[in-house]
Amino acid sequence: MELFTTRPTGLLLTVLLVVFTASSDAHEHHMDKIEEGHAISDDPIDSILWVHILIQSLAWGILFPTGMVLGIIRSRWHVPVQTVGSVLAILGYFLGHKHKGRQFASNIHSKFVPSIMLMLISQVVMGIYLKLHLERGIHGKIRKVIVKAHGIVGKAMPIATWVQFVFGGLTMLGFCRGDHTGQCLAHFIMGSAFIAYGIILTILLLVGQYWLRRTGRSQEFFDSMVIAAWGCVNTFTEHRWGGPWVHNDLQHTTMGIIWWCAGLLGIWLSRKRDGQPKRNLIPAIVILLTGFGMSAHPQHLEISTKVHTIFGYTLMAAGVARIVEISFVLKDKNATSEDGSDPNSFQYLTPFLLCASGFLFMGATEEQMQLLSDAHVTHVSYVFILFSISFLLFLFVNMLLHLYAVHAWNSPAKSDPTLPARTAPPNGHPNGHARADRRIRDAEEFELEGLISEDDEDTKPEGKPRQPHAS
């Protein structure tokens, strides 16, 4: 993210970021009202803390991701959006340290603040350096390193933001401490993985078809690789080997075994005899079996059993939808069209169900279920809330991808109804697209592979300074 275009503004806000980040070490949180053995006090959350949550959610959860996409497409709105986001992030930081009401013991949310703020500061500094356009002498070599680092940190920031949001929610409720830590990690890591899988499938569905063909691999090759690796980890971490088998150890371990066995098969079936990529159903079957296992997962509370059942059914539905998509909608093809710009409506079902199942699993920890049970909240209401959040996240992801695709490909948001379906308009490009397939492919490879595309640099007009890619 290049946040600033002018040196005074950029340097000033950089200094402010450094000052308030450094001040976090000196700030002392009051913990005099926290009972021994508890993580939070019994006080309610005050209005200042609620404002902190809302502002940080707006800055880090909406503005920064939007600004990242605007930077990738080199929009003139990139700098204003990121600047507003930075100002709000600073304001939200101070509000988080000025609140009253509920007190919190030493927690992971506050400890992670220096790390995520260091990422933001590094992006500011690197963005300012790139804006100076120092390309002569040693700066030419340094610039290449800075550009790559700028892109890596920029792409890592949404992940770090997600982690910090999770830490914030757990800290606010005082969850996932002591004996609850292990099952919390399992739920939030696995749930986040399902959400990430759904987002990645959406990216590949809408803007990644050219990149996928360039790799010479099918989607199932990459899916199966991750499934096999994850299965190996689960096989040896879900049970303390040498100790007694307790609770759901056996079910978790056998699920890990299925994953790596099926993953190896999926890798093998992802190529034809001539080496060409081949679609297969193994990842979909793994998702289906995992959902079946989770739907019958025994729990201590009735509401927990029902939420796990809905989670399992949702995951099973995602697996079935993927099977139908590959076998009957696409008929083993990668996409309905060459560039994947007009997917079948059924293809949105699998990634959405994966996102929904991720939220359901993240929301099914022991402490959350106990809290809902004590509050007499039904599982139906709770599931509806989690599905609502899933709809909003999926909407935001699709909006960002639409923003990228429309501007990066320079294609109109609405097609011209006066043009025949497969004829070329006067500009010589079919279906109203202002760039040929070559440019579309370059744009997608730029998004999925790196910061700078050589083809993109070659097409820039002579005499204009080369602009760094933002992330």
Write the layout of secondary structure elements.
Elements: H1 7-26, H2 47-72, H3 78-98, H4 108-131, H5 138-173, H6 181-207, H7 209-215, H8 219-237, H9 249-268, H10 282-295, H11 302-329, H12 349-362, H13 366-374, H14 379-408, H15 437-449, H16 454-458
Helix pairs in contact: 1-3, 1-4, 2-3, 2-5, 2-14, 4-5, 6-7, 6-12, 6-14, 8-9, 9-10, 10-11, 11-12, 11-14, 12-14
Features:
single chain, 471 residues, 16 helices, signal, DUF2427
In short:
This protein is mostly helical and 471 residues long. The chain has 16 helices and no strands. The protein has two domains: 7-174, Four Helix Bundle (Hemerythrin (Met), subunit A) (Up-down Bundle), CATH 1.20.120; 180-408, no CATH class.
How would you characterize this protein structure?
The chain has 471 residues and is mainly α. It has two domains: 7-174, Four Helix Bundle (Hemerythrin (Met), subunit A) (Up-down Bundle), CATH 1.20.120; 180-408, no CATH class. Helices cover 66% and strands 0% of the residues. The chain has 16 helices and no strands. The protein is globular, with a radius of gyration of 24 Å. Residues 1-12, 22-27, 412-436 and 443-471 have low confidence and may be disordered.
> Kindly, what is the distance between the CA atoms of the first and last residues, rounded to a whole number of angstroms?
5 Å
Kindly report the average pLDDT value: 81
The domain count comes to 2
Strand content: under 5%
Q: Number of helical runs?
A: 16
Shape: globular
Main β-sheet description: none
Domain DUF2427: 33-133
Keywords: Membrane, Signal, Transmembrane, Transmembrane helix
Organism: Aaosphaeria arxii CBS 175.79
Transmembrane segments: 50-70, 77-95, 115-132, 152-173, 185-208, 220-237, 249-269, 281-298, 310-330, 346-364, 384-405
